[in-house]
Amino acid sequence: MTFYLTTAIPYVNAAPHIGFTLEIVQADALARHKRGRGEPVRFLTGTDDNSLKNVKAAAAEGVTVEELVARNAALFEGLRGPLDLSFDDFIRTGSDPRHRPGVEKLWRACEQSGDLYKKHYEGRYCVGCEQFYAEADLADGKCPEHGVEPQLVAEENWFFRLSRYGDRLKELIISGELRVEPESRRNEVLSLIESGLHDFSISRSRARAHGWGVPVPGDPDQVVYVWYDALGNYITALGYGSEDDAPAPDFDRWWTEGDRRVHVIGKGIIRFHAVYWPAMLLSAGVRLPSDIFVHDYVTVDGRKIGKSLGNTVDPVALAGTYGADALRWWLLREVPRVGDADFTVERLVTRANEDLANGLGNLVNRVVSMAWRYRDGAVVIPDTLVDAADRAFAEVFDALPAAVGEAVADFDFRAATGAIVRAVDAANRFVETNRPWDLAKGEKGGSLVDGVRLDTVLSLLVHACRVLGAELAAFTPGLAARVAEQCGEGTTVAPAAPVYPRLEVAESDRVTAA
């Protein structure tokens, strides 16, 4: 089953912060999990280069738009190493040669369907959202997402006939053909559709855009609206728009004929992905995504992270100080499927120490050390498990892959990591209940029964650690690799070495927190 996975593409008016890190780590965990189950995966991320926000940020810095976009896009692409990411493709909408032809083809396809028209328009525009707002959608006259008053804009633009597609979109979402998760977000989209869909502007004047963006086909005085442009990246990266010059096997394999086409996005852009984008694809005669997973926000002091608020958190610095595994684990373990999660360095360190150092790290070190102390690193695997408690313990780890898989299928990373933590706790209890050190003493005193029992206990514990390492690979790949190396394969384990040290809050972060 092919699995095509994308993140939203962030604006590059500033360096990456931990808010986008949540999304790309969730997507990476999903991609790694699917690959680990043997499924063909293509994982795309990238940057939205053609935003008016980028133009304004460049002007504020006194640099060219090209310079600002190139610099910041490189920072986003550079997250791969610090965050231990595994994306297969990275697209930049402003410079990737695949993108503009695809946007132009999408435009012409919608035009041929009779869904594009030009008219004069006046409205309130939030540059932060790159979106017009009706008065009723504002909060005390301000953008509900950014808390600023939108600009009053009047100009002639191209419009898309979104009003044609309400009934069809509702039908697709209710049937599950277009799956929106979690349920609360699905209901939000349905409510939005039922309230009535209005045609929306899909171009901006070239003058207001300062000439930055994809020119409208046949109308060079207009540039394509950044959201119409940006949403297309999910198919332009696969070669949509290149078919006239060469075949597009990636588009055929991963989109037209693909099994799953999954978008991972934040709640603030659900309208664009679950309403505008599917309607555009319906108009263009292109297959729709299969799944849209919507996450909430990482906050700081209860507030959405934003450069203008001065509360951004640098994920590269965090990973450099505490490690990619600690940061990834906090994002996947602490952020709920529904609801925001407030970030502090102290919470990151506490969670890593409790789960990864004290829980898993301690377990692996104890098990491997005992295997060497009592059996010189050999693992004697019993033919059968006679004891009911042993069978019950083994069943915990036999069932763990399915439990993790079920949670990931629901896009519930907290549940998936929670299942792993519960298995770690079960293994640590098994050590305390069976006390291998006492069995070793009994064996040394001449008890053959204790010797056989020690072999069984150690074998079960080594197997448990191997399963844990395999299931952790999607979430904390660095730690998982160390666990796998320690626990070895077959009838031997590697010499014991710590797999995860305890962390301490850096002094610089203590000062910042104070």
Automatic annotation (TrEMBL):
Its EC number is 6.1.1.10. GO terms for biological process: methionyl-tRNA aminoacylation. The keyword Disulfide bond does not apply. InterPro entries: Anticodon_Met, Met-tRNA_synth_2, Methionyl/Leucyl_tRNA_Synth, MetRS_core, Rossmann-like_a/b/a_fold, tRNAsynth_Ia_anticodon-bd. It is an enzyme of class 6 (ligase). CDD domains: Anticodon_Ia_Met, MetRS_core. PANTHER family: METHIONINE--TRNA LIGASE, MITOCHONDRIAL, METHIONYL-TRNA SYNTHETASE. Residues 137-367 form the Methionyl/Leucyl tRNA synthetase domain. Belongs to the class-I aminoacyl-tRNA synthetase family. Keywords: Aminoacyl-tRNA synthetase, ATP-binding, Ligase, Nucleotide-binding, Protein biosynthesis. This is methionine--tRNA ligase. Gene3D superfamilies: 2.170.220.10, HUPs, Isoleucyl-tRNA Synthetase, Domain 1. It comes from Phytomonospora endophytica. GO terms for molecular function: ATP binding; methionine-tRNA ligase activity. The keyword Nucleus does not apply. Pfam families: tRNA-synt_1g.
